[in-house]
Structure formats: structure tokens, C-alpha cells
Amino acid sequence: MKFAMCLELDHGPKWIHARQLGVDHAVVLGDTQGGHELWRYENLLRLKTRFEDAGLNLAAIEGLIPMDHIKLGTPEREAELEAFCQTIRNMGALEIPVLCYSWMAHFTWVRTSTTTRARGGALTSSYDHALTQRAPEANHLRLTEDKLWETYAYFLDRVVPVAEKAGVRLSLHPDDPPLSPVLGVGRIFGRPEAFDRAMAMKPSEANAITFCQANFSLMDGPARVPELIRHYGKQIAFVHFRDVRGTAESFVETFHDEGHTDMFAAMRAYRDIGFNGPIRPDHAPSMEGDPNTRPGYEALGRIHAFGYMQGLLEGVDAMRRAT
User: Fold this and answer.
1) Which domains occur in the chain, in start order?
2) How many Å apart are CA 170 and CA 107, to the nearest integer?
3) pLDDT (tens digit, 0 to 9) for every residue of the chain, 323 residues total?
């Protein structure tokens, strides 16, 4: 597997941290980098080259371009679909192998706090569904699950053949939190069965899954995480290695070593399925000295996460050699 760090577009301390940690793969979040038009070939080329000059390989891009019209099925979706397909072609030409996307419309992941106190006073994010349910818009269903399945089928028919030809894996991220509706917006990827349905709709290596561990642990309980990793197997193209405590309706993000999932068993499952894609720590708490301006993506909590992940992998490999 390829340990990766989610990094900003411009060279900075986190790029250096990655190399010092022994990490040589990068991931970028396109939807947080407004105005850069990352999907254009020349911009992607320069970005990939900057990473390579720093000793990093660009392994995945997440949330690269606007998709709301595609998800909602409005007349403007054709223009968005063409831009999405061109993005895939550009990524293929540059050998950027994974495009992570979600099917959450109007907004993506939702938290009700980004200043919840974690171990030793670290700051983390949390979610309380009861608080979002108080919002006036929560009482009016703005988007149905049936509509989302309809637009998703249309999307797959258009983009999977393009991705197959380009050699890019489209990696579907679960809903976060895995609930429906949220703030009056239906969501469809909050159950394992929904991912089975999505993979069956367009069987292809290009139609793949981002296995975000915390979200899957909130669907059927943390004990099922290793089982689900083995169930999806080669359909997993990308991993968000993170953990939480609680339920889908009420949870808190944790340090990677103190959540409710058996992280060693999860790492063992990735080895067992021969996972060789990018895996990155996600949503680590902000520690003393982190500004918490990008909750979940500050430096110090993720440095801890990488050390923990490296130790887990070393333990799994040692156990496999001994058996």
C-alpha cells in the first residue's frame, strides 16, 4: 500500500513533514482550493511536477471539480459532465490514478463542532444529529434518494467508459455522516448495501470505492470494518484511515489509537486483500501548536497518525512472516 498525505497545493512544511516521515505519495483536495481550476491539463501538469520535484508522487485527487448539477440532474449537468470527463482524460494522460468523489449534494461532510475537546485538550470535530434536525430546512425534503439514484446511474453511464479508457479509478466516498436525510437533503451512500448496488450498476475496475473507515464503522458497527474490507477487496481503490467513537447520530473524531475500531485488524485486512492503492490518515485532532484553521488536516495530529499506521503495518507484516 502507498502511504499518502493530503497536502495543500503550494510547497510548505507539511510537504517536508511527509518526506521526513517516509511518505512519498501526495493527495490534494480540489474542492478546498477554490479558483485554481485544477482540472485543466496545464494546471494538473504543473502541480504533479511540483510534487515530483519535492520527492512526492501525486497518487489521488479528491473533490476536484463542481458536481452539484450532475447530482441534482439540472440542465447544467451536461457542461459539468463534460468537464468531469475531461478531468479524467487529463488525469489519465498524467498517470494520476485515483479520482475520489462523493454523491453528497448541496454540501459534503457535516459536523456540528470543530472545537470538541479530545485527549489532553486537543481539538477535534464531532456531530450531533439532534442539532442539525432543529434547522428549519430539516423539515422540508429538498432532494429525494430516488432522484439521487437516478442521477447516479446517468453519471456512471457517462463517466465509467471514459475512466476505463484513461486508466483512472473513480473512487466513491461514503456519505458523512452516513444518514439520510441531513438538513432536508437525501443521501444514498450510508449503507454497505448501497455500495454493493453501486458496484453492480457498472461492473468495472474503474468503478471503485474510497473506504473511509470511520463512516463504514458508523454504518453497521466497528466490528464489521475488517469484514467489509475483505468483502469489497479489489474494489477498494483508496483508503481514508481514521476512527471515531459513537454512532452515526452522535459521534466524535478520535486520535487514531483511541477510537472504537480495531485498527490492527483493519490493517491486517488491507494486507490480506493485497491492497496497493493510496492510504492516508484522515481527520486527525488538532494538537497544541496547530492553528485548527483546517480542522482534521493540521500537521501534528497527522504526524502521530502516520507513526501509528507505520507501527501497525510493521506488526501485521511481522505476524504474517511468523505464520
Assistant:
1) 2-322 (3.20.20.150)
2) 20
3) 999 999 998 899 999 999 999 999 999 987 544 445 777 899 899 999 999 999 999 999 998 788 999 999 999 999 999 999 999 999 999 999 999 999 999 999 999 999 999 999 999 999 999 999 999 999 899 999 999 999 999 999 999 999 999 999 999 999 999 999 999 999 999 999 999 999 999 999 999 999 999 999 999 999 999 999 999 999 999 999 999 999 999 999 999 999 999 999 999 999 999 999 999 999 999 999 999 999 999 999 999 999 999 999 999 999 999 98
Inter-CA distances, 12 with 7, 15, 51, 139, Å? 9, 6, 11, 44
Distances (CA, A) of 107 to 114, 186, 215, 318: 16, 11, 16, 42
Q: Which three cell numbers stand for residue 102?
A: 462523493
β-strands 98-102, 57-62: how paired? parallel
Q: How far apart are CA 201 and CA 195, in angstroms?
A: 10
Cβ atoms of 71 and 145 within 8 Å: the answer is no
Q: What's the DSSP call for residue 259?
A: S
Closest CA relative to residue 286, chosen from 245, 254, 321, 313: 254
CA distance 72 to 205: 26
> Residues 141, 305: contact at Cβ < 8 Å?
no
CA distance 81 to 173: 18
CA distances from 254 to 9, 123, 124, 153 (A): 26, 10, 7, 35
Q: What is the pTM of this model?
A: 0.96
Contact yes or no for 254/124 (Cβ under 8 A): yes
Catalogue the E-assigned strands of the chain: 2-6, 25-29, 57-62, 98-102, 113-117, 123-128, 169-173, 207-212, 236-241, 244-247, 250-253, 278-281
State the cell numbers at 127: 456531530
